[in-house]
Amino acid sequence: MALAEDKKNIINEIKSTSSIDDLEKIRLHYLGKKGLIPEALKGLGSLSIDEKKSKGQELNITKKLIEETVKEQKIIIENKEIENKLISETIDVTLPPNISQQGKIHPISQTIFSIIEIFGNLNYVVETGPDIETDFNNFTALNIPEHHPAREMQDTFYIDGEDNNVLRTHTSPVQVRTMLNKQPPIKIIVPGRTYRSDSDATHAPMFHQVEGLVVDENSTMVDLKSTLVTFLEEFFEVKNLQYRFRPSYFPFTEPSAEMDVAYTKVNNKIKIGEGDNWLEILGCGMVNPIVLENCNIDSKKYQGFAFGMGIERLSMLKYGISDLRSFFDPNYRWLEHYGFSILDSQTRSGL
Ligand code: PHE
C-alpha cells in the first residue's frame, strides 16, 4: 500500500512545514476522521485475515510515526516562533529616548531643581551628605548634647550598633561636615533626604529638607532676611511677599527665628503672598558661635546665618498638592498629573 511505502515522503513533508496551520492541515490530511490513514484502515475489511494483519500493522506503524513526527515538528515550529518574536522585539537600550514614551519628573525633584537654580543665582553652591549620620554631626556638634531636651524634639531613628549612628533628622549635619572641611567664606545649600519617626497626613518618616549656610566675616540677620525673602518671591513667583519673623529656638542658631508667609484661600487653594492667614515655612537664625567653635572656626572672626525648610511643604504650596503621602505613592497617574516634562525649561536649567 502506497501510504506505508511512502513513509519517508510523508515524514519529509511534515518536517518541511514551517507553520502550525500547515502542520494541522497535513495532520488532518493523514489522520483526520476522513484522512488517508482512517480511510485505508477502513479499506482493510475486504482483505484476507493475513493481509489484514500485516497491512493493518504497517498502517498503525505509519500512523504512529506520523503522530510523533507531527508532535516533534509542532515543538520545533513553536520554538522557532518564540525565537523570531524575541529577535523582532529586542530593545536596544543604547538608543536615544523616545520622548513620547517618557516618564515625568517628580514634583520633589522639580522643587529641588528650582531651589538650586534660585540659590545658584545667588552664588550658593550645593553640598550633600549621607543619610546615615554620626551622633556627633547630627546632634553634638550642633549644640545638642546628650540628654538635651532638644533631642526629644526630633523623633530619631537610631541605627543598631556601637557607632551610635542615626538616620539624619535634618540636613543641618551637612553644616558641620562642610565647616569641618573648609574655612570661610562658606555659602552652601544642602538639599536631601531626612528621617523622623512620624507618620500622618502631614508627616512622613522620610522627607526632604534644604539647608542653607553662610559663614563669613560680616553676614547679618538682615542678609538672612533679604536672602529668604528673595528666595521665596522667586520660588512662589510673587512680588512684595508679606512675611513675618517670629522668635524661636534652635540650639544651633542664636538668635533663632521662624518665618511665616501670608496666604489666602482661593477656591480652596492656597495662594501665597498676601492675606490674613500665616503659614510657617522655615526655621533660621544666626549660627551659634558654639557651633562654629565645635567645627574649628574662629567665632571671633567669623559669623553667619543658617536656615532650613521642608521641601514637601514648599512643593505642596507651590503646586497645590494637598496630601503629603501622595508624594510617596507609586501612582503613575498622579505623576502624570503633577509631574514635569524633561523639556520643561526650569528643569533643564536646574540640571
Ligand atoms: N534643622 C532645623 C529643623 O530641622 C531647621 C533649621 C536649620 C533651623 C537651620 C535653623 C537653622 O527643624
Give the proportion of residues in helices: 40-55%
Label the structural class. alpha+beta
Count of distinct structural domains: 2
**Principal-axes shape call:** elongated
Q: Please report the first level of CATH classification, the CATH class of the largest domain.
A: Alpha Beta
Radius of gyration based on Cα positions: 38 Å
Q: Sheet with the most strands?
A: 8 strands, mixed
Name the assembly state: single chain
CATH architecture of the largest domain: 2-Layer Sandwich
- Poorly predicted residue ranges: none
CATH third-level topology of the largest domain: BirA Bifunctional Protein, domain 2
N- and C-termini, Cα separation: 81 Å
The helix count comes to 14
